[in-house]
Task: inverse folding
């Protein structure tokens, strides 16, 4: 399962969250080609140190209303750096990206008076790496 940990609390996330943009990231940055007065080409390259997007698609997962409330509370804390642990154990230092939580859909529609902490929803989570 995925785990999201702030300094003191850990939130277990469903193992079936899919990292949809895992292979869209390129650490190598490159400038547009610029031609010098002599006709030579100048292209600069460098390695990005942070900012890799991690978008977790939760269309096939179930997240409780209580966990969603925790995620939204954490997303509203400025500069909160967390540890996101992949189900295979790799850890990433992350912050919430904007928008932080999207496509929230409750499995069963309820009237407001019927809402419970264990109501289930699907959602997508958006992070950026900081290291």
Result:
């Amino acid at each position: 399962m995925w785990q999201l940990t702030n300094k003191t609390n850990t939130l277990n996330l469903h193992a079936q969250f899919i990292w949809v943009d895992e292979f869209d990231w390129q650490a190598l940055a490159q400038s547009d080609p610029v031609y010098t007065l002599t006709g030579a080409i100048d292209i600069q390259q460098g390695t990005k140190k942070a900012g890799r997007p991690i978008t977790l698609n939760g269309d096939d997962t179930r997240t409780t209303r209580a966990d969603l409330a925790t995620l939204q509370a954490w997303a509203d804390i400025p500069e909160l750096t967390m540890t996101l642990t992949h189900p295979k154990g790799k850890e990433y230092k992350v912050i919430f990206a904007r928008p932080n939580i999207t496509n929230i859909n409750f499995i069963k529609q309820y009237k407001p008076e019927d809402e419970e902490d264990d109501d289930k929803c699907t959602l997508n989570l958006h992070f950026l790496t900081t290291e």
About this structure: The longest strand covers residues 91-106. Helices lie at 65-75.
